């Protein structure tokens, strides 16, 4: 499951490093209500790990062209900021992996579908922005996930070869992107369960990042 040699670990952000997907769900539902619409779970789940432009297309297809995307995004941001005004919670195992990084020579980077200003703000609020050697956001690439560009760019910034990178994801589009980049991909499910397709693209599906830290520690010992 862990490449040998392991040159880099590349993380998704929301739902993988940051325990924010449930907060986004609440914010999205509230933003739709403010326009007199009702969000449905199957649409919300399809937005996880999806770049903003593709997500907007899905929203318009569902709600119609009269749906005000600018108002929706502004309301989402306001609700989300209110929900995590004090801090952004980390998912289990993040601290263990960051501590492990200090003991072994492994580069770590983040590949996220979130725009750079928001990604930097959330990682800083969580206290882990400076813990990574590279950050690639939706702002930095031409094509978002499921295209592999973001993962390939992180690997290049880290000076790592894709086959020797471990990619960690919680979304289906993220898994597709990392696998297309030629990386050993592990899914850590959050709100989305793996499908048969996603399982086949992964080298493994694990309960938490704590399990990943244990496997890396054992491999590097």
**What is the tally of beta strands?**
6
Oligomer: single chain
Strand count, sense and closure of the main sheet? 6 strands, parallel
Percent of residues in beta strands? 5-15%
CATH topology-level fold name of the largest domain: Rossmann fold
Write structural notes for this entry.
The structure is a single chain. This protein is an alpha/beta fold. It folds into two domains: 8-19 and 89-220, 3-Layer(aba) Sandwich (Rossmann fold), CATH 3.40.50.1000; 21-83. Helices cover 48% and strands 10% of the residues. The protein is built from ten helices and six strands; from the N terminus they run βαααααβαβαβαβαβα. It has helices spanning 21-33, 41-47, 52-63, 69-83, 94-103, 116-126, 149-158, 172-180, 196-201, 209-220, and strands at 8-11, 107-111, 134-136, 165-169, 184-187, 204-205. α5 packs parallel to α10.
What's the short version?
The chain is α/β, with parallel strands linked by helices and 221 residues long. Helix content is 48%, strand content 10%. The chain folds into two domains: 144 residues, Rossmann fold; 63 residues.
Write the layout of secondary structure elements.
Blueprint (H helix, E strand, L loop, with lengths): L7 E4 L9 H13 L7 H7 L4 H12 L5 H15 L10 H10 L3 E5 L4 H11 L7 E3 L12 H10 L6 E5 L2 H9 L3 E4 L8 H6 L2 E2 L3 H12 L1
Parallel strand pairs: 1-2, 1-4, 2-3, 4-5, 5-6
Helix pairs in contact: 1-4, 5-10
Summarize this structure as a short list of keywords or feature phrases:
alpha/beta; 6 strands; 10 helices; PGP-like_dom2; HAD_sf; 221 residues; 2 domains; 6-stranded parallel β-sheet; HAD family phosphatase
């Amino acid at each position: 499951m862990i490449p040998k040699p392991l040159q880099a670990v590349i993380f998704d952000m929301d739902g993988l490093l940051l325990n924010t997907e449930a907060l986004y769900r609440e914010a999205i539902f509230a933003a739709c209500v403010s326009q007199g619409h009702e969000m449905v779970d199957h649409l919300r789940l399809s937005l996880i790990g999806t770049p903003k432009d593709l997500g907007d297309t899905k929203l318009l297809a569902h709600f119609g062209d009269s749906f005000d995307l600018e108002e929706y995004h502004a309301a989402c941001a306001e609700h989300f900021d209110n929900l995590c005004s004090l801090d952004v919670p980390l998912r289990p195992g993040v601290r263990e992996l960051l501590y492990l990084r200090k003991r072994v020579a492994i580069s770590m980077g983040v590949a996220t579908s979130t725009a750079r200003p928001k990604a930097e703000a959330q990682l800083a609020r969580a206290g882990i922005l400076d813990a990574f050697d590279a950050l690639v956001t939706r702002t930095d690439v031409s094509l978002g996930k499921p295209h592999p560009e973001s993962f390939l760019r992180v690997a290049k910034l880290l000076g790592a070869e894709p086959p020797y990178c471990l990619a960690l994801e919680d979304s289906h589009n993220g898994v597709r992107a990392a696998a297309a980049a030629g990386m050993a991909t592990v899914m850590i499910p959050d709100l989305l369960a793996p499908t048969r397709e996603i399982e086949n693209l992964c080298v493994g599906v694990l309960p938490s990042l704590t399990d990943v830290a244990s496997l890396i520690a054992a491999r590097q010992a």
